[in-house]
């Protein structure tokens, strides 16, 4: 008998377009001899929409509904996604998707789900909180300034100039996929970058710019954690922003990364340490900087990394001998395992 998989995609965050791409890639990779798939779209207003039942790989030209194309007659109560014995794959990025919100909702519904638990999701979504956790377990961080109240902008600009110098990168604390990130070369640009990031969050992270390669490690597991050999993001743009990632495709990847074994092993150790520190479950992608003088800094953990056909996470596991389809099966197993454990603790 086939297992039931429920895919959620879309969502209310500015990263919903990435979610659509990821969900379509997952649908094309699923082993339909093992799974039947029910798909639901979450609109930018938070409505849940039935988006189809799939028993076979969709045609290459088929596309999932978006905010512009969904059928309003198929809007339904959020709780209607419940199916007995189904596993949910929330292919959602950013706030209201990988910040613990949807995870809490699924736990209330008593449905097993792929990916981060509430703690893992909420801590890694907030880049400032994550920095504190990573520092506590000895994982090195790029020097930073945290702006937690936009009223303090003027004094934080002065603090940044004194503590970090320029250039710096300015990021909304609770956003991913490079949304709202700017590079600033002076105080005037920093003020503008803070204003831009403030459109997405009132908590803002300002990091020292470092001359570094961008290296990523995939992590998989619950209590038992596995990691991949690192891959490198190779880009022909100033920094890895949303446009270059998902629109221009101006990114290539070296898998595995062309770095020495000792450095790769250290990155894997840091990745697994950081993952355990946030009580990681399911999966994550750990993003590092490797400076020209060999320093390693953990940039961030992505609790629900991109799952498109050109995303680093599934490609890293493919390099380790695990296909996209088998990766989905493993994630389902991990979700069922964690659900059984969680429900057992509540009895």
UniProtKB/TrEMBL annotation:
PANTHER family linked to this entry: D-ALANINE--D-ALANINE LIGASE (PTHR23132), D-ALANINE--D-ALANINE LIGASE A (PTHR23132:SF25)
Major location (coarse): cytoplasm
Taxonomic placement: Bacteria, Bacillati, Bacillota, Bacilli, Lactobacillales
Residue numbers annotated as active site: 15, 177, 311
Coiled coil: none
Top EC category: ligase
Protein name as it appears in the record: D-alanine--D-alanine ligase
Enzyme Commission no: 6.3.2.4
Gene: ddl
Keyword terms of this UniProt record: ATP-binding, Cell shape, Cell wall biogenesis/degradation, Cytoplasm, Ligase, Magnesium, Manganese, Metal-binding, Nucleotide-binding, Peptidoglycan synthesis
Cofactor names: Mg(2+); Mn(2+)
Pathway given in the UniProt record: Cell wall biogenesis; peptidoglycan biosynthesis; Glycan biosynthesis
GO molecular function: ATP binding; D-alanine-D-alanine ligase activity; metal ion binding
Location(s) in or outside the cell: Cytoplasm
Residues the entry annotates as binding Mg(2+) 2: 300, 302
């Amino acid at each position: 008998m086939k297992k039931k998989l429920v895919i959620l995609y879309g969502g209310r965050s500015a990263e919903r377009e990435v979610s659509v791409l990821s969900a379509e890639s997952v649908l094309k990779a699923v082993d339909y001899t093992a799974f039947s798939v029910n798909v639901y779209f979450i609109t930018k207003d938070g409505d849940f929409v039935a988006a189809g039942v799939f028993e076979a790989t969709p045609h290459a030209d088929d596309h999932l509904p978006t905010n512009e194309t969904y059928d309003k007659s198929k809007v339904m109560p959020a709780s209607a996604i419940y199916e007995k014995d189904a596993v949910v794959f929330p292919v959602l990025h950013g706030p209201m998707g990988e910040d613990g919100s949807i995870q809490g909702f699924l736990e209330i519904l008593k449905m097993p789900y792929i990916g981060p638990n509430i703690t893992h999701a909420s801590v890694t979504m907030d880049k400032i909180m994550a920095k504190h956790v990573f520092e506590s377990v000895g994982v090195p961080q790029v020097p930073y300034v945290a702006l937690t109240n936009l009223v303090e902008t003027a004094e934080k600009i002065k603090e940044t100039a004194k503590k970090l110098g320029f250039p710096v990168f300015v990021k909304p604390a609770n956003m991913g996929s490079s949304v709202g990130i700017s590079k600033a070369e002076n105080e005037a640009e920093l003020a503008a970058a803070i204003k831009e990031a403030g459109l997405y969050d009132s908590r803002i992270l300002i990091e020292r710019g470092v001359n570094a390669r961008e290296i990523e490690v995939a992590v998989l597991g619950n209590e038992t954690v596995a990691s991949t050999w690192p891959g490198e993001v190779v880009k022909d743009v100033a920094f890895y922003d949303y446009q270059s990632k998902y629109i221009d495709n101006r990114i290539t990847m070296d898998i595995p990364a062309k770095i020495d074994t000792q450095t790769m092993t250290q990155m894997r150790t840091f990745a697994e340490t950081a993952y355990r520190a946030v009580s990681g479950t399911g999966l994550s992608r750990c993003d590092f900087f490797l400076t020209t003088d060999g320093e390693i800094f953990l940039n961030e953990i992505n609790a629900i990394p991109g799952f498109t056909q050109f995303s680093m996470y599934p490609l890293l596991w493919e390099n380790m001998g695990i296909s996209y389809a088998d990766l989905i099966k493993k994630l389902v197993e991990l979700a069922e395992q964690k659900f059984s454990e969680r429900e057992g603790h509540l009895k």
